[in-house]
Amino acid sequence: MVGNLRSSRFPLGARVRLADQAVDPYPTFAELRAAEPVTWVPEIECWFLTRRDDMLAVLRDPDLFTTDAPSTIRDMFGVHMMTTEGPTQIRYKRKCLPPFHVSRLESASLPRLKAEVERLVRALGWGGRHAGEVRTEVARPVALHSVLSVLGIPLSETERVNEWYEHFARALANFAGDPDLRAAGKGAADAFGRALEPILEQLARKPNETLLSDLVCDHVDPLTAEEIRSNALIILFGGIETTESMIANAVWALLSHPEQIETARSRADALDLAIEETLRWEPAVQSAARHATRDTEIRGVRIAEGEVVHCMLGAANRDPAYFQDPDRFDVTRRNAGDHLSFAVGRHFCLGAPLARLETRVVLETLWSRCPGLRLDPHRPGAPYGYEFRKPKTLCSGTPDAGGRQQSVPQWAATRRVRIPM
Ligand code: HEM
What we know:
Elements: H1 2-9, H2 11-14, H3 18-23, H4 26-35, E1 38-41, E2 46-49, H5 52-59, E3 65-66, H6 72-77, H7 86-96, H8 102-108, H9 110-124, H10 134-151, H11 158-172, H12 179-205, H13 211-216, H14 225-239, H15 241-255, H16 261-265, H17 268-281, E4 287-292, E5 296-298, E6 301-303, E7 308-312, H18 313-316, H19 352-369, E8 383-384, E9 390-391
């Protein structure tokens, strides 16, 4: 009954279908933003917000809109920074933050990252006929190895981590509540915990410059083994598909607008701005969910205690009240960096500096080593997906015959971004 009443009050929300959103969410976002900015979506029984201002208010008010509630991600990984609020969340995040500072990333991660990207891009082939697949052959391994390295998990674990990741991803997308998928996800999280034990023992004896080493050697109010496991799990899960998608979406966005690539390459800050525009225009993560802690209202719409509000980040990024001509991809857009693709507030993405660094190194290397790189017109790769969006395949076309090798330019330091606490 309540459902029927809501459907008649929110007719556009009632028509939202996740399958359509996965193909192209932006026309629906535009309609909702204009006519039903706070709407009820019966298909997933949640509220959708599509105006940037409303999302800023929700994401900045953890007392009223919390992540501290039962959820699949907490069920699977335990209590971690993304499913707590207040002092516990701040403690977890503070402990995990140092390895993600730009200066430490540049000293501890950049040389390995550059060497790996160089090797993977060479393997794609350039100046010849080979057409590589950029998402799975470059973006995925870069994302996976980078987050493993920052955590301090040996790269020899890559294959097992990949398998666990597939179980996590299926369990988290298990909207129908299939018990087998849930059990497989929890089994993978337990297997990760068991694999972590000897790694932590080793790091306690021989510390190094990694996150797990920092945590295991911390003697001031240290995290318990369980707290290390659950926070490591969310960092690992948060760092793989998201960054793979961010890199692939950035390559796709620029290759779909080849006239803008030269502008993006012209200076270090131009490339940084172009990366922000790719984040704004096609964000890898499309929503951030919050639970109402009490009955409240947004724009006069009553939200009941316990109901889930989805902040549709891709809609915020194309809100014409903030971004002029928002559907246009423009690498010179001055306020591109005000996108919400890493959310805002206490849960602002921990890995944003690493993801930006990875994307920049991939773009620099691709433009330098594959000057003729272009999208393969026979295998179009527009991003797809409701919650995580990425190209299914991102095939490069035949590079220019005799494509030249150029030295990789030395861009200035990555944009320094403060992570809100
Ligand atoms: C190295 C890569 C990454 C790592 C390690 C990582 C890790 C994390 C972690 C641990 C959180 C929870 C922070 C907290 O609750 O305080 C988080 C939040 C978030 N991340 Fe990332 N992330 C990465 C890349 C990305 C990328 C590429 C995107 C999208 C473009 C993204 C989007 C988000 C969003 C939207 C949130 C906030 C979710 C919410 O508020 O509900 N992340 N990330």
